[in-house]
Write a structure and sequence with these properties.
Layout (H helix, E strand, L loop, with lengths): L1 H15 L8 H6 L8 E7 L17 H21 L7 E8 L7 H8 L2 E4 L6 H23 L4 E2 L1 H7 L1 H5 L5 E7 L5 E2 L5 E2 L2 E2 L4 H6 L7 H8 L2 E2 L9 E8 L8 H15 L5 E5 L3 H13 L2
Parallel strand pairs: 1-2, 1-5, 5-10, 8-9, 10-11
Antiparallel strand pairs: 2-3, 4-6, 7-8
Helix pairs in contact: 3-5, 3-11
Protein name: VWFA domain-containing protein
Length: 295
C-alpha cells in the first residue's frame, strides 16, 4: 500500500508542474484563466487631429461622430452581456482612457463618470444611468477636444508599455480593450527607433520605407519593419481596433497599417484581436456586439 501511495504522490506532483507544450515558465506564470462571464472592458480613445472636422472632414459622417456611435455600440454590447447574467453573478466593469490626458481638467471628471461597475448589489435603475452617461458624455469629450484644438497626438505605444496591464487587465475576468484610432501612432514624447523598428507610424514613414507597392509584406519582412515591442505575454487581453483611416495617395497604405498592428499584437502574444476600418457605425455595430458576446 505504501508503494502505491508514494507512486500516486509522484504522479500528482508531475501533473501539477505540467504546462502547455512550448509555453515558457514566464508565460505560464502570466497566464490567467479568465471567467468568460465576468467582463472587464476598456476603451482607449485617440484624440489626435484625426477627429478634427476641418483637418479631416468627411461629408458622410464626421469621424468624431463615428467614434461616439462606436462607443454607444460598445456600451450596448456590455449591457447586453450583463443582462444575460443572474444578478448574483454580476462582476463586470467598463472604463474609458486617453493617453495623454486632454488639457481640459473637466476630462478627469468625465472619465470618472464613464467608469462603471456592476456587482450583485447594483440597483436595476443603474442600467438607465449608464446608458444616459454613455449617450451624452462621449460627445462632450469630443466637442471639448475639438474646441481646444491642441492635438498632441495619441501615445498608444506608451499606454501598452506602461499602463495596459494595470489599467485593462483583471484576474478572473475576460479582458477586452477597444482602441478608437486611425491606425497611425505618434507622440513627440515617445518617438524612437530600435534598428528598423519604431515606436510610431506615420504616412511619411510608410513612404520612406517604400511600402507603397503590392509587395509591401515582403519589404516589411525583409527589413524587419514594424513597431517596437511594448510588452510581453498579453495573452489574456483581447483587442479590437476601430477606425483605421489611411491617408490618400497610397493604395496599399491601409493594408500596411493593419500589417504593422497585426505583427505588433502577435509579438506581444495577443491571440484574439480584430483591426477594422473607419466604416459607418451601422456596419460595425454587429461586429462590436459579436466581439463582446464572444459568440
Amino acid at each position: 500500500m505504501k508503494k502505491i501511495f508514494y507512486l500516486l504522490m509522484i504522479i500528482s506532483l508531475v501533473s501539477c508542474n505540467k504546462h502547455e507544450p512550448g509555453q515558457t515558465n514566464d508565460e505560464k506564470k502570466d497566464t490567467v484563466i479568465a471567467d468568460p462571464n465576468n467582463i472587464n472592458l476598456s476603451i482607449l480613445i485617440d484624440l489626435s487631429d484625426r477627429i478634427d472636422p476641418e483637418t479631416n472632414p468627411n461629408p458622410t459622417m464626421e469621424y468624431f461622430q463615428r467614434d461616439t456611435e462606436y462607443i454607444k455600440a460598445i456600451e450596448k454590447g456590455f449591457l447586453n452581456h450583463i443582462k444575460s447574467k443572474k444578478i448574483i453573478t454580476y462582476e463586470d466593469q467598463m472604463q474609458v482612457f486617453f493617453n495623454p490626458e486632454p488639457l481640459d481638467p473637466k476630462m478627469n471628471e468625465l472619465t470618472k463618470e464613464l467608469k462603471v461597475s456592476f456587482d450583485k448589489n447594483t440597483p436595476r435603475n443603474y442600467f438607465d444611468q449608464v446608458d444616459k452617461k454613455y449617450s451624452e458624455l462621449p460627445t462632450t469629450i469630443y466637442q471639448s477636444a475639438i474646441k481646444d484644438g491642441n492635438y498632441v497626438g495619441s501615445d498608444i505605444w506608451e499606454f501598452f508599455k506602461n499602463k495596459v496591464k494595470d489599467y485593462c487587465i483583471k484576474n478572473d475576468h475576460r479582458n477586452i480593450l477597444f482602441i478608437l484610432t486611425d491606425g497611425y501612432m505618434y507622440h513627440e514624447n515617445t518617438k524612437f527607433s530600435e534598428g528598423s523598428k519604431t515606436s510610431y507610424l506615420t504616412g511619411k514613414l510608410i513612404n520612406a520605407n517604400h511600402l507603397t507597392t503590392s509587395n509591401f509584406k515582403e519589404v516589411i519582412e525583409k527589413n524587419k519593419f514594424g513597431f517596437v515591442k511594448a510588452n510581453d505575454n498579453l495573452n489574456n487581453l483581447e483587442v479590437i481596433v476601430l477606425g483605421i483611416n489611411p491617408e490618400k495617395g497610397n493604395p496599399f497604405e491601409e493594408a500596411v497599417i493593419k500589417e504593422y498592428w497585426e505583427n505588433w499584437f502577435k509579438e506581444m502574444k495577443i491571440k484574439n484581436y480584430q483591426i477594422k476600418s473607419a466604416d459607418l457605425p451601422s456596419n460595425l455595430e454587429p461586429i462590436i456586439l459579436k466581439a463582446i458576446s464572444g459568440k
